[in-house]
Amino acid sequence: MTAILVGMSAGVDPDALTGLARAADAEVAFLQVHDPALIDVLTSVADRGASDVLLIGAGWAQSGPKRSWLRRVAAHWLRSYDGAPTLRLAPQLLAAPDEELLAAAIAAGGTPMADDAAPLHSPAWEKVPRHRHQVLVCRGPRCSALGASALTSAFGDELRRAGLGDDDALVTVTGCQFPCNHAPVVTVQPDDAWYGRVTVDEVPGLVEAHLLNEERAAHLLLPRERSAARASAEYSDRGPRL
Ligand code: FES
Questions:
Q1: Whole-number pLDDT of residue 130
Q2: Does 53 contact ligand 1 (Cβ within 6 A)?
């Protein structure tokens, strides 16, 4: 059997999961943000002749859709690959996987999946969300090396504690946002607020100041060369600069 350890959330540490998978002679794949993507790893192991594949979701400590995302993506791949191997899903996600938990999950195996799981599309995902703020957490190389890997889940935890949902603030990870010397960098849009040296300990204060009270967290704020008024004028003159 081929085991694939699947990083579920944007906040997982890809290097840590890769090391863990290698130590257990398993493959590693990611459901979002990081590479390699799950469908690419499934195709690769199937092309190499795997006949029985076990998916073990990892790194998702929050409540929410959890396994259904993994199930939907895996079923989508099953429907599209001719002669797909038996695909099994481990019964539990490993919120904080370690060598022992991973070995136990591999030994326990999983339930074979059918290809009739729900599709990737849903009416619930049709509309552009109405969030007031978008929190962009940089996961570029410098920010990731200086602590950004813990920030995404820290923002998620703090937003829940503050009673803010996806309509209030949407947390999104990005690649390098450029002012790497101030890593880890977090920006809050559409307010054009750039914050530097954001640590996990700073997250509650930043959420309270900016997202709850609409005040900038001044001690973390980075200077901007273009004024907000000029940026706004450029936007309306030429449209967004993509
Ligand atoms: S890596 Fe984060 S700003 Fe460059």
A1: 86
A2: no
